[in-house]
Amino acid sequence: MDHVPTLQDTFESIDLAAIHGFVEQRRQEGLRLEFKTLGNHASFEREDRVNLAKAISGFSNSDGGIVVWGIQACRDEERVDAASELKPIKNLDRALSDILSYTSQATSPLASGVDSRAIAEGDGAGYLVTYVPVTDGPPHMAMLGEHRYYRRTGDSFRKMEHFEIADMFGKRLRPELSLFVQFVPFSMAGSYRPRAIVGIENSGRGMARSPALSLRVERPYKPYEYGLDGNGTTGLPSLPTRLARGRLSEFGAGAGQVVHAGAILEITQVYGELTDSIPPECRIGYTIRAEGIPPVEGTRVIPGDEIAAVATEPRPTSP
Prior knowledge:
The chain is α+β, with helices and mostly antiparallel strands. 18% of the residues lie in helices and 36% in strands. It is elongated and about 70 Å long.
């Protein structure tokens, strides 16, 4: 299971080839992607400022999104707006300065984490890309002449209903969950057994309720059947699994268990019984679940040299 790119990863990966590819492939707009042109193709005028405010409000109040400036979109045969023509921004430096300035004025409250960058094509022209993360707080109102709340639906922004705004004002802060892996000191003399503590780390601003963790540990490592302390204690109750050879472990909790913001919940250990001069890499596939958030999936890879670095006694070398 490979790392799943985040929206910010996608934003940072967009280059000139990707810009041209959007048009060549007639890329459709969607829940997290919008194409826009500038009115005079050089700087942000009133309509462009309104589009910026609506995009930041709409994406932040939904699931986040990316705006590519300098591409014209038209309805395709499926009646969806799709990239149809390149419309490079003529004065790219001026436009970048404008968008960075207007971003701080675009919504109330200020939407944190919004970022824009330029992609040059030559002769001072090019494109802008804006990244808007999802809000983990109250909704953001579009300003710059709008004074309305927006939400992204399909390939367009729509005004939010009163009940949606009220719901968002009561929305709790979001957790941000990832797999925690930390190898503990061990001796490499003779045959050796490196061990790692595995758990759930919450780097977000809200607590994660009813957490659960599934682990798929690849050879030559495997889950430690005796938990965290050698007596079978685990940070979450162990759940039965059907996979043979003990390579899969599952843990889950009821409504009373939480992972607090900024905290790590240690759950179990993995280990390897090894004889190699340098430990092989450790690969752990995982799925993390919690109440009210999408599952977090991926594969954590710890290189062998990082594992060897925590050894208290290096393996002796042959004379």
